[in-house]
UniProtKB/TrEMBL annotation, chains A, B:
The lineage of its organism: Bacteria, Bacillati, Bacillota, Clostridia, Lachnospirales. Belongs to the QueC family. This is 7-cyano-7-deazaguanine synthase. It comes from Candidatus Scybalomonas excrementavium. Homodimer. It catalyses: 7-carboxy-7-carbaguanine + NH4(+) + 2 ATP = 7-cyano-7-carbaguanine + 2 AMP + 2 diphosphate + 2 H(+).
């Protein structure tokens, strides 16, 4: 019997690299296609990390450039934005945002990425798409396109709109980052190669929300972040 | 009170031009942003039609190029495909396809287009997106990304994933093409400027499924297609 294939939305960070390891474990690396996306992020450096991780696993990936879609957005995560990336945790930011998404929310990014992956997955005959959204990012509406409500609707839309050909797997939709790291450590994920920091400078800034989240996740697993 | 804004997925065909006219009637043309998309379609000519229609309405539109997303697809609608566009109606094609989408189904195209429109609509502060899917295209699973089931899930995904900022309007989701034309005639839609034919040659071929559908829709309204 022919084994099924999976596409993985793969940014080179902790969550999507753990997704990649899970997909490789389930389908075999010859049946996994990682998809990395340029979208004008300040931390394009994450895509260099992605390349190094693919070398580690000895697999090829695909790269897509969706930068023009966000040309009119002033989201602080994007190059050319007039906004600075906040130096505070998501919880602190949410207290200031009055229930609105945080300033690093890229407009409907995950919906666009999942749709793009679905179009390509159909062309490449993949049956599954892996997507690394997790509870910490969805909390308090920080990133509405990481929520379980969004995921359930998008999963249904993609299943129906693809002629029932594509299933979305979001293994961390009810897990926090510490639980993701726990799963990744079991799978031997090379976390020393991953990149998370939104600033995209030479070294992680340690002050942006994703640096704060990441450090905490490793501490909760009784270890120091191996990328530091 | 500030009037709300709407984005319209606008290809220059019968359905989306009627959507455009409805959005202009409801929001005023200064509050409507048409979005046209290159995706490698053989009938790129439709985007010339789109331009002429925008001139007619005296409004500006946006254009996005998503061709790279479909680079690996062999769908017959796309340039570079080894497949010919079938010269038969959708009903005839469905009898041959055994319940699978027709060969002109572009993989998850409408999901990708709606997601792209959502990202841009958020940047441009639009609250609505108009989408011209209708019953004839959804019938028998010809285009699964035109079905009401797909639409309801996608609408929910976009509403939730946008932080409840974007609503999708699909005014024809339960209407056929003849009913769309009826509504458009009331609104004075310049159908003589629209383009539907998949072949994209000098004149409509008259033999592809969309030519067949279109001609029938005008006949049912007691008139000859004004573009012929």
């Amino acid at each position: 019997m022919k084994r099924e294939k999976a596409m993985v939305l793969f940014s080179g960070g902790v969550d999507s690299t753990t997704c990649l390891a899970m997909a490789i474990e389930r389908f075999g690396k010859e049946n996994v296609i990682p998809l990395s996306i340029h979208y004008g992020q300040k931390h394009e450096k994450e895509l260099e990390a992605a390349k190094n991780i693919l070398k580690h696993y000895e697999i090829d990936g695909m790269v897509m450039d969706l930068t023009p879609v966000f040309a009119e957005s002033n989201c602080s995560l994007l190059q050319g934005s007039t906004e600075e990336i906040p130096e505070s945790s998501y919880m602190e930011q949410l207290q200031e945002s009055d229930g609105n998404p945080v300033s690093t929310y890229v407009p409907f990014r995950n919906g666009l990425f999942l749709s793009t992956a679905s179009s390509i997955a159909l062309s490449k005959e993949c049956s599954y798409i892996y997507y690394g959204a997790h509870v910490d990012d969805a909390a308090g509406n920080a990133y509405p396109d990481c929520s379980e409500t969004f995921f359930n609707a998008m999963k249904e839309a993609i299943y129906e709109g693809s002629g029932k050909a594509i299933k979305i797997e979001a293994p961390f939709i009810r897990k926090n980052k510490a639980e993701i790291v726990k799963e990744g450590l079991r799978l031997g994920v090379p976390y020393e190669l991953t990149w998370s920091c939104y600033e995209g400078k030479e070294k992680p800034c340690g002050n942006c929300a994703t640096c704060i989240d990441r450090e905490k996740a490793f501490v909760e697993n009784g270890m120091v972040d191996p990328s530091l």
